[in-house]
Predict the structure of Cytokinin riboside 5'-monophosphate phosphoribohydrolase.
Amino acid sequence: MKRITVFCGSSSGTEAIYTEQAILLGQTFAKENIQLVYGGANVGLMGAVADGVLNNGGKAIGVLPNFLRSKEIAHLGLTELILVESMHERKTKMNDLCDGVIALPGGFGTLEELFEMLTWAQLGLHKKPIAILNINGFYDSLIKLTENMTKKGLLKEANQKMLLVSDTIPDLLHQMRNYTPPSVGKWIDKDEV
């Protein structure tokens, strides 16, 4: 994997470990020569992961919609900042640039980006690994929800397992490097429920 997109909050959250792990992820990318692709801001967890990369000699590419330039405050030290017109164009560009995706803690925007990438994978539009760094159990409830979707017959188990999860960076990157996309389609037949 040469480039990984990271989706995460433009806020830092209430636990210092979120920022610590975002910085550590950036440092790990720099050490392993993985380029960061992310939302382009210098605030919150977004800024922390970018600084972790950049302060350790790595490369960071930001993709930022013009209308968020003043709200999310564009990071001025990036290797490259790509300005786009819409949120959809942002996600499309980030997908085009990356070999995989990691979600750190975040809010609605992070979840929307994560689930769009999962949906695209489910529909066969890409075969990239999609992962959650489950820092301090932040995503435990979401993981339970995906298990419930499968149990209730609304999500195939193979598609639920597309979402890679770990609470450590080395294990998460190992899972991503060894990921095999499902060979089954999205559609659930009545007889399969």
